[in-house]
Amino acid sequence: MSGLRYVYAICRPFDAALQAQVTGVDGAPPGQLSHHGLIAVVGTVPERDFAEEPLRHHLEDLDWLSATARAHQAVIDALTVVTTPLPMRLATVFRDDAGVRVMMEEREAAFLRTLDRLDGRVEWGVKIHAEAEPAPAAEKPEKAASGRDYLRQRRQRNRAHEEMWESAEKFARRLHDTLCGHAEDARLHAPQNSALSQESGRNVLNAAYLVPRSESEAFVELVERVKGEESSLRVELTGPWAAYSFAGLEEDADDAVGEAGS
Question: Which residues, including other chains, have CB under 8 Å from residue 181's CB and lie 6 or more apart?
Answer without folding.
Answer: none
